[in-house]
Amino acid sequence: MVDLETWKSRGVRIEDDSTRVQFLSALEFIEKLDLEGFEKLADIGSGPGHQAFIFKRLGCDVTCVDYKRPIYANLVWTHPDNADFHETFDLLWSHHCLEHIRDPLGALIQWWGWLKPGGRLLLTVPEIGLVMSSGHINSYNIPLLIYHLAMAGFSLAGKTIQKQRSHLRVIAQKSSNYDPRNNFTASLRDLADYSLFSPSVMAAIKKTGRFTAEDVHLHWLGQKSTPPKGTIATYDYIINAMWKG
Question: Does domain 4-242 have CATH number 3.40.50.150?
């Protein structure tokens, strides 16, 4: 892993601790990506442009999408209100942005249209917890994130999803057989028929019409994780004990 000081020597401009933490978290994700064959990338919610700067240095043709211009002069910038893309990008990168958007499902469907056929969404959101942060108007756990992505036309059949500390990370592929703009459905059974879920999740849906966290087997670039049985009961016990009158 290239450390922060090395990236600073290459031109990254990070000063405060909060930005440093976010940058290093993003770097954990970026360093594991194989970008070969992917040229055009949009950084959605790019902020100052630190992560876009890295992708550009790694050879990507980068467009920043944010309400503010990036601080790096060599980055292309588009205001979200003017973002009229159609199958433009090979990759969409969005790191801790979706939790701030008033219509996250609508945003995901819009992003689906920005991707070329077979394109990938590289997404990080915070996992729901018991701490409220300013601006975090959407909360996700793993089942809800998988469900939202499927409704928006993104497949996790490849099972590329990770939980690391408070982060949920996914590499989701644009579906080729389901267009959420013209054929939207919230039915889990219908979404399963489009093969948008991993095998274990699809099996649970076909059997019961729903799925739980215990049906989600996490696969992240060769690493696998399966929740132990009784996880849901343990979670319910903790929550009930916390709020018991």
Answer: yes
How many CB atoms are located within 10 Å of the residue 209 CB? 11
Parallel, antiparallel, or unpaired: how do β-strands 61-65 and 40-44 relate?
parallel
102-114 tens-digit pLDDT: 999 999 999 999 9
Query: pLDDT tens-digit profile of 113-169?
Result: 999 999 999 999 998 877 778 888 888 999 999 999 999 999 998 768 888 888 899
CB 143 within 8 A of CB 216: yes
Cα-Cα end-to-end distance for the chain: 48
Q: Can you read off the two tokens belonging to residue 207? A: 């059997």
Q: Which two tokens stand for residue 230?
A: 């009784």
Q: Are 146 and 116 a contacting pair, CB within 8 Å?
A: no
Contact 213, 141 (CB under 8 A): yes
**Structural domain spans, the chain:** 4-242
**Cα-based distances in Å from 206 to 7, 94, 154, 197:** 48, 31, 19, 11
Q: How far apart are CA 37 and CA 237, in angstroms?
A: 47
Q: Which two tokens stand for residue 57?
A: 């240095």
